[in-house]
């Protein structure tokens, strides 16, 4: 288990943060992860030797459509800050299959379309199809 391999995992008395947000604007992750691992320049050089520009690959990564405003940006910043400060934290949110929506103009009229950020999967996720939770919403709908 990854948690047991971390220093926080060895100190059960240490407090942890569990952060719940309906949005997480994490942005594109490839450059961030390469930088955090200290592999950015090595990767850039290795790709250059193959005649590939890293920026062209970076431009292909879709932005995770997990929010649209200040709440999502704040949540992402909190999580990044806690990681930088070595504060044990877990972020919980909604993993939107189609994101919020895209707005396009057609003949001067606004139209909403589903966001397609997961068309080609997400390499930063570990699928767990065996884990699901039924969530019951009360109330009724009248048409």
TrEMBL record:
It catalyses: [(1->4)-alpha-D-glucosyl](n) + phosphate = [(1->4)-alpha-D-glucosyl](n-1) + alpha-D-glucose 1-phosphate. Keywords: Carbohydrate metabolism, Glycosyltransferase, Pyridoxal phosphate, Transferase. Its EC number is 2.4.1.1. GO terms for cellular component: cytoplasm. Coiled coil: none annotated. GO terms for molecular function: glycogen phosphorylase activity; pyridoxal phosphate binding. Its cofactor is pyridoxal 5'-phosphate. It is an enzyme of class 2 (transferase). GO terms for biological process: glycogen catabolic process. It holds the Pfam family Phosphorylase. Belongs to the glycogen phosphorylase family. Allosteric enzyme that catalyzes the rate-limiting step in glycogen catabolism, the phosphorolytic cleavage of glycogen to produce glucose-1-phosphate, and plays a central role in maintaining cellular and organismal glucose homeostasis. This is Alpha-1,4 glucan phosphorylase. It comes from Pseudomonas aeruginosa.
